[in-house]
Amino acid sequence: MKSDLLESVFNHCDDGLLTLSRDGIVLSANPMCSELLGLAPEALKGQSYSWLFFHETENQELSQLINDGLKKEITYQLKEIQYSSPQTTTLRLLVSTVLVPSAGAAAAESPLLLVFIKPVEDGNRTAPVSSGRVGQDVQQLAAQVAAMEKQNRLLWTRRTKKDLLYALLAGLVFSLILLIILTTQSRLTIFPKNTVSEEQKIIRKTVEARLDTLPRLIHVAGLLEPYSKVTLTAQTSGPIVKMNFTQGDFVEKGHILYQLDTKELAKSVRTARVAYIELLENYNQLKDWQSSLEVMQAKRSLELAKIAESNEKKKLEETKKLYEKGIIPRVEFDQANTTYKKTGYDFENAKQQLETTLEKGSPERIEVLKLKLFNAKEELDEIEARYEASVIRAPVAGMIMAPEASDGRRETIKKEGDLFKEGDLIVTIGATEAFIINTQVGELSARDIQVGQTVQVTGLSFPNLVLQGRVDWIAATATISEDETYYPVRISIPDMPAEARSKLRFGMQAEAAIRLSSLEGVVTVPIEAVSRMNGKDVVMIGKESEEPAIRAVRPGYCDGSRIVIESGLQPGEPVLVPTLR
After folding, report:
1. Nearest CA-CA partner of 78 in 186, 162, 178
2. Which of 36, 282, 343, 349 could form a disulfide with 312, with the two C-beta atoms 3.0–4.6 Å apart?
3. pTM (2 decimals)?
């Protein structure tokens, strides 16, 4: 793609066009892009993409796309998203990777092209250009496309097969963009209006290049997630009579979440308790049956019957002797004999009664009663557990989330009046003692990441907090998707201050800086001081009151605010940095 083709497209397009280098610097922007972003063209050129987009919370998707495209070297083929402009309503935004030959034509760069498609209102449509002029424009643009294809053929002879594929792909993508522009002729204008506010003018401030120690960082992004999660399931059935939380609340361990209707359960508990107490009393009587009152009475009755029988036996023997001597009549002998037999029967009955009484406390009967008592206790414990489960408490301190099934499916949180069935999912509690961030890095960054490296975590949603974490895990093998290869990484934040725990919420966007090493004794300048001119990285040397001199430099590592100058600049030299007034 030649510079005159870019200039023609940029100057004739009613949509906003902006290109970013692989270093994240704005290479060019047309006037319409300046109008949509609310900045002057000279204020846009040379700016960092993070300065333009990362401070806008409503455009996090764009920030993530640019971040992945630059740091993970992902190639986009017309990725379309929504962009919220500070000056207009929501715009359609196309993000693409295009091929731009360098000055030497021996290599090519692949910047990102951002197309901000301006909405067209019925009452404000520009008048279509004449058919003759349109035909000329179409012919000129078609010729430029042919020139671009010719340039790509020249690149084919100088690049590897992999680079040729990227060049061809970029050419096709840009051809498609040109086709879109050609088919929307009513939106072309020759002299776009410059509506940049007069208050937004660029000024240049002098700073000195300095010797610095710059930490070498890898920046990744992800969402805050709980380190561990507990999903509660209903242990009993019943309607919900009270709910004591809302989703997203932080609760302490033991906090009552739900209260269920317990009328039927309370009745079942009382019945089971009565049955258990009765069996317990019977068991306590039988386990010491040998020394029980009933056994002692039976033994005493047997002893008395034995004594009575013995006395009547002696009396019968004496009566018999007297009868045989004729001293007493036979009637008395018969009465004594009858009385003796009766005491004998009483003795046998007392003996059988004792055996029957002892049988009640036999080891077999005690074992049966013991098993019944055990079953009754288990039944009572189960019903009491269900009764206690009707008051659902938080088992751990954490944040309330929608219940999560084992397959990752989320269910809705039940409200008062809903019915819980045994086994239903209640809520998931994310323990807030620690957080994790699941993210990913490209293969070039993965080789420098190791478990245990320190991480600083920040986020737009918690601007005054800087959390300290560590690399907890990095995958040993890459994950390959349709258009990228990456390595999953898990970052843990183990020591969570109480102040942070009350402000953070799961799902918040977080930026993590993994510290690899430090670059010591390097020359650095603010990242805004380096711009791109004629395919070279340059800085402006001088002071505000003087005519600056343009000097080519070789930039190196950048931490997002300062950039290392590997050659072309000495410590203490004055450098002009563009800023907005």
Report:
1. 178
2. 343
3. 0.42
